[in-house]
Amino acid sequence: MKGFVKDFKEFVLRGNVIDLAVAVVLGAAFKAIIDAIVNNIFSPVIGMITGGLALDQLTLQVGEVTFQYGVLIMAVINFILIALLLFIVIRVISRLRKAKEEEPTPDTPEVEILKEIRELLKSQQK
After folding, report:
1. Sign of torsion over alpha carbons 16, 22, 27, 28
2. Which residues contact 32 (CB under 8 A, 6 or more apart)?
3. Is the pTM here over 0.70, yes or no?
4. Which three-class secondary structure state does DSSP give residue 108?
5. Domain residues for 95?
6. What is the tens place of the pLDDT at every residue in 63-72?
7. CA distance linking residue 68 with residue 66, whole number of Å
């Protein structure tokens, strides 16, 4: 039993598990934002364009079976928006990281000495 508890503790405290848990929580919050955008912005606009038709209410009756294909359409819209927003967020983060990497390093004494050596070598080559 002690070995099981120890192994479980090591598993849970591993960085990947904690990162995954944070990602799941953030993903749920992100989904709430997407749902709000779809339900409060896109659906009313689509309703205006289609004359008051709500996409999520679209159904097809075949005999006694009702197919709610509007729910599928809304799920596809949600997916596309989530993918688009994640793409934009990842792209911005990538650009910020790249910009930070390209920032010049502060002039430390070592850098100053190296610059002086470079200048001396340039003057000797002339």
Report:
1. positive
2. none
3. no
4. coil
5. 2-125
6. 999 999 988 9
7. 6
